[in-house]
Amino acid sequence: MSSSIKKAVVLVSGGLDSATCLAIARSEGYQSFALSFNYGQRSSSELTAAVRLAEFFGVAAHQVIPLGIGQLGGSALTDHTVDVPINGVVADHIPVTYVPARNTVFLSYALAWAEVLSADAIFIGVNAVDYSGYPDCRPEFIEAFEKMANLATKASAEGNLIRIRTPLINMTKAQIISEGVALGVDYALTVSCYQANTAGQACGACDSCRLRHKGFKDAGLEDPTVYFSPPLYV
Amino acid sequence: MSSSIKKAVVLVSGGLDSATCLAIARSEGYQSFALSFNYGQRSSSELTAAVRLAEFFGVAAHQVIPLGIGQLGGSALTDHTVDVPINGVVADHIPVTYVPARNTVFLSYALAWAEVLSADAIFIGVNAVDYSGYPDCRPEFIEAFEKMANLATKASAEGNLIRIRTPLINMTKAQIISEGVALGVDYALTVSCYQANTAGQACGACDSCRLRHKGFKDAGLEDPTVYFSPPLYV
Fold first, then answer.
1. Chain B residues within 8 A of A65 when measuring between CB atoms
2. How many other CB atoms are found less than 10 A from the CB of residue A149?
């Protein structure tokens, strides 16, 4: 293999968005290195999905990093004493499912690996349209992270800059799904639900399920999600 | 306790610089929350020193976060097949003891905890004078991180900004030591050596030992470090 092959670290949660990111990185000719995190998610089936997706896309390597972020507290997704909001509309305020500084931590690890690999890009599936009010999904956050990243590393000090790629940032969920289907993504492999069961079946009630289901509906495509109870909003 | 107490997350490695940072945060009236990382350092005595320092300063809490950064490779400090440079002068180039994106990862966790605690500041003992060529110790990196951090969090979206404090950034090692002694730091509790033994005794040969010893000498103070072999540079 030539050293001129473009490499990208792709953050893969196991959900719909990151699966689409993997497909986009591949379609642009990147050799992909999948990076996932085990941070005490309620739903371990999300990580199982990440492993399936990494295999499906034939990535060059897949690392699952254990994070101690749960021990810092502060989120319904890692603090199992806090309830997940059920069948809510997307709120104006920042939801309790927010994990403190999550994307900052994720991107920092991606940056570390990108430096080791001499990768050109980091792909992250953030979205500013259906973003549920998470501050670290906004374009201005991503731009600030990229600027910081290009001051942080040995590679950047030697002139090899890294780009933080957010191909989904201005797409609706329906557009993301349409793009992914066109690129061959099998969304049955993905898990979006905040409280999926161990078989990867979805609750059909949480905000994430609701956004996903609406996405398929708006795209005019059949939702391949398997629910463990009838979706509340169908 | 009043909610108006100023809180700070202080990164504590167990070394001389972070001990001084803890003392400075205390002298400014901050309630300190010590944050350390276990990332496969060669020298576990550094973490033992961090625990001793947190007790010595009576911090409000001390968290030691296990990091998976070692599994990404790329550094002599975590990759035990790479030799630590011995008795070298501080090199013009970036040394092999550099850990990819280390301060970015450390500060990201500090940001997560700061958000949970509603802390006002993060203290990090980076130094641009005796900094050994690490890009993530430069003032422009810190400024870029602070800017990113204030776009990243729920707290920042609500107007509660966080400051990244680097009180040592323009100080020589001798100035750091003098300041710390004036604030009551017992440097015998600290470990700087890249390859200290389990008792916390230093090699007296690595770059970190050399910089530390020179600092005490330049400050006109006795070096309380215990060496397991005679220092090469005395």
1. 68, 71
2. 28
**Closest Cα in chain B, distance from residue A155 (Å):** 9
Which of A108, A131, A141, A161 to probe the B interface (max B CBs under 10 A)?
A108
Cβ pair A154:B100 closer than 8 A: yes
Strands (E), B31-71: 31-38, 61-66
H helix count then E strand count, chain B: 7, 5
Residues of B in contact with A96 (CB under 8 A): none
In chain A, count H helices and then E strands: 7, 5
Taking the C-alpha atoms of residue B144 and residue B134, their distance in angstroms, rounded to an integer, is 16
Q: Cα–Cα distances in Å, from A152 out to A39, B138, B150, B165?
A: 24, 9, 17, 17
| CA–CA distance, B123 with B31 (Å, rounded to integer) | 12
Token duo for residue B111: 């940001």
Which residue of chain A has the CA closest to B113? A72
Residue B108 to residue A101, Cβ atoms within 8 A: yes
Contact state of A104 with B115 under an 8 Å Cβ cutoff = no
Contacts of residue B73 in chain A, CB cutoff 8 Å? 116
Residue A224, token pair as written in the block: 């391949």
pTM above 0.95, yes or no: no
Q: Pick B112's closest partner by Cβ from A94, A101, A152.
A: A101
Q: What percent of chain B has pLDDT over 70?
A: 83
Alpha-carbon distance A76 to A90, whole Å?
16
Q: Report the alpha-carbon distance of residue B102 to residue B68 in Å, rounded.
A: 11
Residues in chain B: 234
State residue A97's pLDDT score. Answer: 52
Instruction: Identify any residues that bridge with A32 across adjacent strands, giving them in sequence order.
Output: A8
Q: List the single residue in A63, A105, A157 with the smallest CB-CB distance to B94.
A: A157
Average of pLDDT values for A200-205?
89
CB contact B130 to A (< 8 Å): no
Q: Provide the pLDDT confidence category of residue B234 given band limits of 50, 70 and 90.
A: low
pLDDT digits (tens, 9 = 90+) for A172-195: 999 999 999 999 999 999 998 888
Q: How far is CA B67 from the centre of its chain?
A: 16
Q: Provide the ipTM.
A: 0.85
Alpha helices in A30-172 (DSSP H): 45-56, 102-117, 139-152, 154-157
- Given a contact cutoff of 8 angstroms between Cβ atoms, the answer to whether A37 and A9 are in contact is no
CA distance A135 to B111: 14
- Domains, in order of start, for chain A: 7-187 (3.40.50.620)
3-class DSSP assignment, residue B146: helix
Query: B69 in contact with A at a CB cutoff of 8 Å?
Result: yes
